[in-house]
C-alpha cells in the first residue's frame, strides 16, 4: 500500500524539496501552506510530475483548528498519514536586537514555529495512534542552540521545536510512533535571500567546515532516511544538516 506524507509549508524552499523527494520515493504527498492554489499550482504540479498523487490544502499552521482540519482532509483523501514533516516556519520580519524585540513579532514567530509545530503534531499523533504507526519529523535549525541576538524570537522558537521532538518522542513511543528532528544550517531559499551576503562571508571565513551553502535537497535527503523507517529502535534523534557547523574546534 502506498505511503502518505503530510508536509507543512511544502510550496517552496526546503518544504518543496522535501515534497519532491518523498514523491520520488513513492509517497503520496499532502502539502499544507498559506498561499492560494492559483499561486502555487506550478509547484504542486512539479511534485505531481514526480509520480505521486498530491493534495494541496490551504491554511495556517498557527491556527490549531486549521491543523486539525488539514489532518482530516488528508485522511479523507488517503486513509492514513505515515509521515508528518513539520517544516513550515518563519523568520522575524525585522532583525532587531533582542532589547528591541516586539510583542507583535514574538507572537507572530511563536504562532507559526511553536504553535504550528505543536498542534500539527498533536492532531496528527491522534490519527497515528489509531493507526498504531507513524513518523513525525521536525525541521528545527542550528538556531535551536546558536545565539543570534538580532532574532531572539526565532532562536527561542527553534529551541522550543527541539523540546517538542523530545516531548512527542517520549509520549508517542509506546504507540508505534517515532519522532525525529533535522537541524539545517544555512540553506539557500527565499528565507535566507535577504541575508545572502552575510552568509557568503561566513562561508568564505570557514564558519562552516563544509564550505558551501546547503540546498533544500540536502535537507530532503535526511528527511527521506527518517521517513524510510530505517531507525525502528530509535526515537528523538537529531540529524544536523549544517555543513558541520555544530562541531566545536580550537
Ligand atoms: P521559506 O520561507 O522559503 O518557506 C516557508 C514555507 O512555509 C512556505 O511554503 C510558506 O508558505 C510556509 N508557511 C509560512 N507560514 C506558514 C503558515 N502560517 N502556515 C502554513 N505554511 C506556512 O523557508 P525555508 O527556508 O524553506 O525554511 C523551511 C523551514 O526550515 C523553516 O521552518 C525554517 O525555519 C527552517 N530552516 C531554514 C533554514 C534556511 O537557511 N533556509 C535554516 C534552518 C532552518
Query: What's the CATH architecture?
Result: 3-Layer(aba) Sandwich
Overall SS class: alpha/beta
Largest sheet: 7 strands, parallel
Low-confidence stretches: none
**Radius of gyration, taken over Cα atoms and rounded to an integer in Å:** 17 Å
The distinct bound ligands, ions and cofactors come out as: 1,4-dihydronicotinamide adenine dinucleotide
Largest sheet: spatial strand order: 3-2-1-4-5-6-7
Topology as H/E string? Answer: EHEHEHEHEHEHHE
What does the average pLDDT come to?
A: 97
Distance between the termini: 51 Å
Classified by CATH, the class is: Alpha Beta
CATH fold assignment? Rossmann fold
| Helical run tally | 7
- Helix share, percent: 40-55%
Strand content: 15-25%
* Tally of discrete structural domains: 1
Number of strands: 7
Tell me, briefly, the overall form: globular
CATH superfamily: NAD(P)-binding Rossmann-like Domain
Provide a compact summary of the structure.
It contains 7 helices and 7 strands; from the N terminus they run E-H-E-H-E-H-E-H-E-H-E-H-H-E. By secondary structure, it is an alpha/beta fold. The chain has a single domain (4-240), classed as Rossmann fold (3-Layer(aba) Sandwich).
